[in-house]
Amino acid sequence: YALQGSRWRVKALTYKISKYPKRLKRADVDAEIGRAFAVWSLDTDLTFTRKTSGPVHIEIKFVEGEHGDGDAFDGQGGTLAHAFFPVFGGDAHFDDAELWTIGSSRGTNLFQVAAHEFGHSLGLSHSDQSSALMAPFYRGYEPVFKLDDDDKAAIQSLYGRKTTNTNQYTPTFNSPPSTQRPTSFTPPRTPLDDSICKDSKIDTIFNSAHGDTYAFKGDKFYKLTTDAVEEGYPQLISKGWPGLPSNIDAAFTYKNGKTYFFKGTQYWRYMGSQMDGVYPKEISEGFTGIPDHLDAAMVWGGNGKIYFFKGSKFWRFDPAKRPPVKASYPKPISNWEGVPNNLDAALKYTNGYTYFFKGDKYYRFHDARFAVDTATPPFPRPTAHWWFGCKNTPSSTAVGDH
Amino acid sequence: ASQTAPVSTTTQAEIYLSQFGYLPASARNPESSGLQDKQTWVSAIEEFQSFAGLNITGELDSETMKLMSLPRCGVRDRVGSADSRSKR
């Protein structure tokens, strides 16, 4: 899955349908739209309340051709609908040139397309998992609808798991609206404690199960925004993860939502900021086949497996296999074209890309080409500028950069 | 209602790739004769093929154009435009 980078600050959201489709009964459309929203309530505490007037979070319209947002629809087929991410308002528009249908293999199924578009309204981008609801292509009518694990992981990384037991399949009406739109983004700032700008080498970097990004250095951690350090950071690791030591070697969050930290010969497991059992344990105990004193670890987006890096070698760990590490490992890091040895950190970031960090620089990896990405400015790039939002630091490492 | 033409020419593919975030927005304007260097064009096709689960050939082959003709969501596949700093 991929996240756009914004989400709603509240979970009780409101919506209204301000323009209905030509060919369907309003009551039927209300029911289908309510069902489509409810898809996202099954695994989170999100609730969706339909209003018939006044300000709402998400406004829905069925329109044709040019309709005022600069993104004209194109008649039957082609583009079916589009929606705006929370930071851009969250509204959803449907092309009314389409033959919208309910419960039929004819035309285009309103429920499926609406559930997809509301994923965007909540902050999800497109997924490259063809089985996911958030894949960009319409797959035809599916009488039995099931949200893919990829979609569940995506929405929970933004809004957390479900804690209430209200099954929100019947949309509620007109409860008091909170018309709070997402707060505007505070412009990124250079971190208050800008020592990280002077020495941007990190111990490790990882995403939490909720999609927040953390960089560790010494006894401190930095929470990152989309391009800088969040205000109020760094903070002490011992405050963020009670029981976890400083100078961590490596960390990653697995699809079970748990975060694993590695230091020396030992590892710790956390659920959020709480230690998840009795730790530390020996790496040899919990990760048979993986060495001690690691450099970096990550879950690679290309196959969802866990990769460990040390010196000039890497290991692939698959918890579902016996043994979890094939005899053909370790392999040379040079297999990852352009990635250097003796790494400091590695991460699959919320934009879907894989990143490697060494010293004060980082590399973006192109998973499809299995090589460091080509871009301008080229990689490696200075970590300080692009990850910590440090001002007066170069944005490129290219010598003689123009 | 008018029916959207399937993607069957390089120009249509260029507009498609630009519309969904694989090429810079400039490529979307059929009037402008924006020249794409070959590497950019091949990378854009590879990126789309990888995202759509096709064989990554870098060629605008029939399989690729067939997928480009499928009904789909109008939101870009690659968000976070290349020129914004936050694209790390």
Structural class of chain B: mainly alpha
How many β-strands of chain A, per DSSP?
Answer: 26
Quaternary structure of the protein: heterodimer
> Kindly state the mean pLDDT of chain B as a whole number?
80
Q: What gross morphology of chain A would you assign?
A: elongated
Strand order of the biggest β-sheet of chain A: 4-5-3-1-2-8
Rg over C-alpha atoms of chain B, rounded to the nearest angstrom: 13 Å
Distance from N terminus to C terminus of chain B (CA atoms, Å) equals 42 Å
Strand content of chain A: 25-35%
Model regions low in confidence, pLDDT < 50 over at least 5 residues of chain B: 81-86
The residue ranges of chain A in which pLDDT falls below 50 over 5 or more consecutive positions are 167-192
Percentage of β-strand residues of chain B? under 5%
Number of helices of chain B: 3
Note the main attributes of this structure.
heterodimer, A: 402 residues, alpha+beta, five-stranded antiparallel β-sheet, 7 helices, B: 88 residues, mainly alpha, 3 helices, 36% helix, disordered C terminus
Q: What does it look like?
A:
The complex is a heterodimer of chains A (402) and B (88). Helices cover 13% and strands 26% of the residues of chain A. With 402 residues, chain A is of the alpha+beta class. In chain A, the strands form 6 sheets. In chain A, strands 4-5-3-1-2-8 form a 6-stranded mixed sheet, with helices on one face. In chain A, strands 13, 14, 15, 16 and 17 form a 5-stranded antiparallel sheet that branches. In chain A, a hairpin with a 2-residue loop joins strand 10 and strand 11. By secondary structure, chain B is mostly helical. Chain B has 3 helices and 1 strand, in the order H-H-H-E. The longest helix of chain B has 15 residues. Chain B is globular, with a radius of gyration of 13 Å. The C terminus of chain B is likely disordered.
